[in-house]
């Protein structure tokens, strides 16, 4: 470890300034996100242990749906992220529907999820073009990411997406809500939810 070049108070002030700059950039990102023209998508069919389900059914009572593009049970990074979702899942679903999509067969997903204690819903996009159409499958393979969809009458539109990778911002619920038009809206975290 090298010799410190900044006094603690000076470093704290500098870091606080950086955090304010990040906050300003995030506000610009939210403003830009809210101006994005939505991309209409088709009502994809996925597989679950209970049978096929349509993308439209994944919204439940919400108008917003967060879909995690997970590479499957063989990916340690995707597993790390999914483990982290367990801590925020019960908060996220008070604002938007949430589901993990992977190429694994439903029985593989179910067994893997049970072994890790995951409680969030999972769907299989096996044998579909969903990941490819959303930009999360290339000739080199699957990629991790997040897509956010909205219901607009009888249409489904994608309003945002981002790739996941090491050191990304998706370890906290607030950054996830930033992908939804309107951000967190009037949502407030609570110790308990009804």
- pLDDT averaged residue by residue: 89
CATH architecture level-2 label of the largest domain: 3-Layer(aba) Sandwich
CATH topology of the largest domain: Glutaredoxin
Quaternary: single chain
Instruction: Strand order, main sheet: write it out.
Output: 1-10-9-4-5-6
How many β-strand stretches? 10
Radius of gyration: 19 Å
Under the CATH scheme, which class of the largest domain?
Answer: Alpha Beta
Order of helices and strands: HEEEEHEHEHEEEEH
Question: Your description of this structure?
Answer:
The chain is of the alpha+beta class. The protein has helices spanning 8-34, 76-92, 106-116, 130-133, 173-177; strands at residues 39-41, 45-48, 51-54, 64-69, 97-102, 122-124, 137-138, 141-142, 145-152, 155-163. The chain folds into 2 domains: 1-35; 39-177, Glutaredoxin (3-Layer(aba) Sandwich). It contains 5 helices and 10 strands; from the N terminus they run αββββαβαβαββββα. The chain is globular and about 60 Å long. The termini are far apart. The relative contact order is 0.17.
